[in-house]
Amino acid sequence: MPGTVLIRRVEPDLWSIAPPGAPTVLDPAPALDTTVLEVVGGHLSWSLLSGQRLPAAILHDPTSAQDWLWAIYGESVAVALNDHTEPVELSADPHLPETATAARRLAYAHWAARWWPASTLDGIPALDQRLLDEEIATLTEECDLLVDGDDARPPVRELAAVPASARAEDYALAAGESAGDQRGALTFARGSGGWDWRRCPPGLVDASEQAVSWELTRTGGLTAVRVRAVAAPGITAAIPGYLRPHAAIDTGEGTVDIALELFGDTWQGLAEIGAQAVARVEVYVPGVGPVTADPVEPATRGRIRALAAERLRRAAEPTTGDSADSRETAVTSGSADTSGAADSDDAEDAPLLAEIAAAAEDSDF
């Protein structure tokens, strides 16, 4: 993965080593596809959608970073960081390409734990968190030369909360009772759309651009708005109150905020409003993510869905000499070789164990 990087001091106590156009942790609003890894003396980052191989580095302790710079960028870059006070552009070539590959895969695995676009509507299955955590732990060991902080510790997840026990046929009844019985109401407007993934923790809401819907009804001289948001695939646990999504309903005359309740596989809420129109509905968890939405996010989310679907498609393809049964056994035992064929140039983009398992369980892949 040779390439060119620009070495420069960006602040009195911060140095940057970055390929042209690469995102860094200093960007005011990192894109959804930015993967990040905390390392000794700084942070590495990659653009997932661009296929960037060489990471960008922001260093707050260049001296400590010398322990691994040579492995990721090559000796010439490591030496130049000490020798040059003015910006300098150099060729970079990892001295330890296996470590560089493991670092990029580890950053991606951490990203997948947060941003994987699981969607029942779009047919993108959720990733098995146990398999994902196990691979993160393995990759963390492979990157012990450079990882630091939280990224140097294997993930620890709390046990799932109390499983939901309601039967599927009970969901519609419960939803109707709790969200308000509007039999006989006139529905005069409807809408649907997506939501800003940054504003909810993972595993709560379906990632589709059609996951959120609303309808305006009129009955008894009152206007009400009902909001529905499809829950993330596999959501079966009792959700703590502080993680319950809300819906901010912009009527053009003001904003109405309602807490949503989970009934089966749908978050729902109902509120009376004084307006006769809905301009937009934002689903969010209070205190999570940015307050304002990025207007380019829907397009970026679409590209991320396409990337996830492509990775699942490749994960479903057996490698030479592998049978479906042998691959399933390897995933179950945690011993699958996800590095790809020995002579493959795309080893670092080989599917994660969790992606292989998800593809194997979904008949569409």
- What general form does the structure show? elongated
Going by helix content, strand content and strand pairing, the class is alpha+beta
For the biggest β-sheet, the strand order reads 3-4-5-2-1-6
H/E element order: EEEEEHHEHHHEEEEEEEEHHH
Describe the structure.
This protein is of the alpha+beta class and 365 residues long. 28% of the residues lie in helices and 24% in strands. The chain has helices spanning 62-73, 75-83, 97-115, 129-142, 168-179, 297-315, 324-333, 353-361, and strands spanning 3-11, 14-18, 34-39, 42-47, 56-59, 88-92, 186-193, 212-219, 222-230, 246-250, 255-259, 261-263, 266-273, 280-284. The strands form 3 sheets. It has a 6-stranded antiparallel sheet. The chain has a 5-stranded antiparallel sheet with strand order 7-8-9-13-12. Strand 3 (34-39) and strand 4 form a beta hairpin. Helix 3 (97-115) packs antiparallel against helix 4 (129-142) and helix 7 crosses helix 8. The two termini are 30 Å apart. 35% of the residues are buried.
